[in-house]
Amino acid sequence: MPVYTYTGVNRAGTKVTGERSASSKTELQTLLRREQINVSKVSEKGKEFAIPTFGGGVKSKDLAIFTRQFSVMIDAGLPLVQCLEILAQQQENKTFQKVLTGVRSSVESGQTLSASMKQYEKVFDPLYYNMVEAGETGGILDTILQRLSTYIEKNVKLKRAVKSAMIYPCAVIGIAAGVIALLLWKVVPIFVTLFAGLGANLPLPTRIVIGLSNFVGSVYGFFILLAVVGGGIGLKIWYGTPQGKFAIDATLLKLPILGMLLRKICVARFTRTLGTLISSGVPILEGLDITAKTSGNAIVERAIQKTRKAVEAGRSLVDPLKETEVFPGMVTQMIAVGEQTGAMDTMLQKIADFYEDEVDAAVKDLLTLLEPIMILFLGIVVGGIVISMYLPLFSLIGKLAGGSS
Predict the structure, then answer these.
(1) Is residue 279 within 8 Å of 140, Cβ to Cβ?
(2) pLDDT 10s digits, 104-139
(3) Which homologous superfamily is 157-405 in?
(4) Global model pTM greater than 0.90
(5) Among 44, 51, 100, 310, which residue is least crowded by beta carbons within 10 Å?
(6) What are phi and psi for residue 44, nearest 5 degrees?
């Protein structure tokens, strides 16, 4: 059994650290929560400084398709083991295929489906196996799986909207950087040789561009490139730490246009996740804990954890949410109505639908705004380099024309 090191805060507010054996991180976190320790970091001993991975694993889209097919099979009355065997054989993703085969073997050996999925936390997160456990307990596994598939599909749609908002500006900036570097590295030196042969007087814009070209072509340009790449890797590693994640997430939420979009995404994810969990019979405290971990933003996660502590102390859900100042007033007002009417899950789903539509509209507006700005930026920079190279030629042509007349 692996040994884990953990860091957290106990009920008295004192920081505690220690080591303990457990079958998984989730089991250890559950044990520590029972001891009223709010865990902030858990890592397997000997793997505290794991190198960050870039890609791989099981995609959300594959998980959504599996969940939808699984729910249809369960609803049709097929045995659980047979469903898992068929879906594993049909799975093209080899990693996911091994996971499903392992889950099937665990179920065959007598474990519950939720306990079997719990062994593969990288594929089935706490939200997933907790909802499956609620479905098994209530005898409504097919219904729970349908809700899960709907949730994952909407989450995939939300991620796609974010990617579409980021891909276009990143692509344009990348193309612009490549074109500018090519001009400075290959094209400008040709003009420099030409100007030296003609003995032309170089105006200030031309001298600036030539200076940049010399810098890019020198060894310093290579070091700058290495520094940029190293800075990107360092930023990713720092983002993997609690302090770095908190600082970067806080900065992103304060950005003028992008910050508002990210806040709407966080609200949509929070309300969708919590609404799905509550409607599936997961207790509110467990639901808030899972929602905090799957929020995707350290600021929102801290706000939800504070709300959870307040609810655990006997307060309502609305007042602590207001005090965090993270969630818009409309959200807290609608949640208050949901609490008073006893339709919290329905109200949360309505809020999620509204904010998902808001995200779609915001992404479209952002792309509409960015397109002319990016084109203008690319035109000014590239056009400025080209014009600055032709300025001495214009001067020479003017002198030649004056001399001939």
Answers:
(1) no
(2) 998 988 888 988 898 888 888 888 888 888 888 878
(3) Type II secretion system (T2SS), domain F (1.20.81.30)
(4) no
(5) 51
(6) -70, 135
